[in-house]
TrEMBL record:
Signal peptide location: 1-16
Family statement: Belongs to the glycosyl hydrolase 27 family.
Cellular compartments annotated: Lysosome
Keyword Oxidoreductase: no
Superkingdom of this protein's organism: Eukaryota
Gene Ontology terms, MF aspect: alpha-galactosidase activity
EC number(s) on file: 3.2.1.-
Listed name of the protein: Alpha-galactosidase
GO cellular component: lysosome; membrane
Domain (Alpha galactosidase C-terminal) ranges: 323-402
Natural source organism: Pomacea canaliculata (Golden apple snail)
Pfam families linked: Melibiase_2, Melibiase_C
Amino acid sequence: MLLLVLLAVSLSPSHSLDNGLALTPPMGWLAWERFRCVTDCKTFPDSCISEKLFKDMADRLVADGYRDVGYKYVNIDDCWLAKQRDNVTGKLMPDPDRFPSGMKNLSDYMHKRGLMLGIYEDFGHSTCAGYPGSEFYMELDAQTFAEWEVDMVKFDGCNSDTSDMAYGFPAMGFFMNKTGRNMLYSCEWPLYVEVASHQKVDYGAIRKTCNMWRNYEDVTDSWASVISIIDYYGDNHDGFSYYSGPGGWADPDMLVVGDFGLSYYQQKAQMAMWAMLASPLFMSVDLRTIDPMAKALLQNINVIAINQDPLGIQAVRLFEVPGSISVWLKALQKGNLALAFLNKDDQGTPTVFTTSFKDLGLTNQNGYNVTEVFDNKFMGSFSLSQNISLSVDPTSVVLVRLAPL
C-alpha cells in the first residue's frame, strides 16, 4: 500500500505550467513575515519597506553564503507602491521616497549579484494594505514588471471576488507569458478559495497556471502556527500533494527560522519539515542580525538537498501517535528515502521512538543504510525487521536519509 501511495504522488500531471521555471522548489528571501508593512523610514530607517532594506538583504545573501547554497530570490511584498498609479500612463509606481532609484535600478542591483527580484501585486482593486491593485490593469502591470526586469510575481487575492479567480489568475499568467520575460508566478488563489470562502479548489487548474501556490493560512512567528501548517499538509486536503512537483509547488509559506517566536529545536523542525514537503524555501528574517545557529540551519546543505531533490515528491504522513511522534516519508532519487520523526509533545523530556522499517511499510529486502541528515552522521545499516530507536527532543525532529543496501 505504501509503495502505491508513493507511486501515485510521484506521477505528477504532465499538463502543467511549462515556462521552464521552478524545476526544484524556489529559494530566496521574502520581506513580509519579518518586516510587514513598516513604511515610516524616518523612525525605522533599517526596517522600513524601502530599496535600502532589499539591497541590504541582497548584500547579506551574497556575502554570508546564502546565495551559494541556493537562496536566489529577493522578494518584495505589500506596501512598496505609491498610493496612486501614474495619472498619465496608468502604470504602477513605487513609493518615491522609499524607492527613489526605481524598480529597474533595484532589479539591476540584484542581477549584478547573481540574484533575482520578486515583486508583489494583488488581483483585487487594492492590495491587502490598501495600495493600488491590478483589477482592470493586469496586462499593463505584467508589461510594467517585464520592463523592470522582475523575475517573480506574487499575486495576492485581497479585495476581490473569489468567483472571478478561476479566470483572473490564469489571465495574469497569460499576460506575464505574453511579455516574453520568464517570471516565476506565485499565486495566492487556493488560499482565498478554500480557507477564506470554504469552496472546493481545482488544483489541476492551479497547477496549469502557477509555479507555486499558497493553500493555507499565513505563517506567523509561533510554533502553534508552524505546527498547524504541518498538520494541514499531513491531512492533505483535496489531495493537493498530487499536483506538487517540478514546475509547480504547494507553498506552506515562509521560513521563520531566526526570528523571535521559535526555539532552536522548533526552528530545526520547521526547516526539516519544509524540506520534506518539497516547499519553496523563502526566509523572512533580518539577515543582518541573525543568530549563527539559525543561519547554520538555513544553510544546512544536507537538509537543502532533500528539499531540492529533483523528483520533487512531497512527503506523506505515515501515521501519528496523538500528542507525540508524527512519522513522515519522502521518496528521493536513486531509490533513496527520507524519514522525519516529528515530536509534537512539549512536556520537557525527549521521546524515545522505536520502530522497524518493515513496520513503517518499507520493502527493500536487504535493508537500508541510515544517515542522520543535519549532521550527516552515519547511524548504521539496518535490516527490514531490525529495530531502530530514536530520541526525539520535544517540539523538534529527527531527520534521516535511507539508502537501500
